Amino acid sequence: METGDGKDCAVFAIAQVGMIERPDVAQKTGGSHYLNCGWSKMITPSTIHPGATIRAWAFDTQSAQAFKLAGSFKVPEYSP
Questions:
Q1: Structure pTM?
Q2: Alpha carbons 69 and 52: distance in angstroms, whole number
């Protein structure tokens, strides 16, 4: 999660891979072992600052490297 200039980043949730079927990925890679490679994560709004940008990363445990996934979501500013 970034809160402005991209320098203030924090891991605030970890999703478990393999919970959602992705036949598109299995077909594109030619590997049926990628069928259950999808993921999703529900997060509590109170854990995120208004205006923060959320990005997802994949972590390869074998190489100990993280890879930023495409896309992002900006948390809307709100007032009570």
A1: 0.62
A2: 17
Cβ neighbours around 62 below 10 Å, total: 5
**E strand or H helix that includes residue 58:** strand 57-60
Distance CA 47, CA 72 (A): 17
Mean pLDDT of the chain: 84
Structure tokens at 57: 């990363």
Closest CA to 2 of 77, 58, 74: 74
**Would you state the structure tokens that stand for residue 8, as one six-digit string?**
């203030």
Residue 76 gets which letter from DSSP? Answer: P
Q: Is 38:58 a contact under the CB 8 Å cutoff?
A: no
Phi-psi region of 32 (alpha: psi -120 to 50; beta: other; left: phi over 0): alpha
Phi-psi region of 39 (alpha: psi -120 to 50; beta: other; left: phi over 0): beta
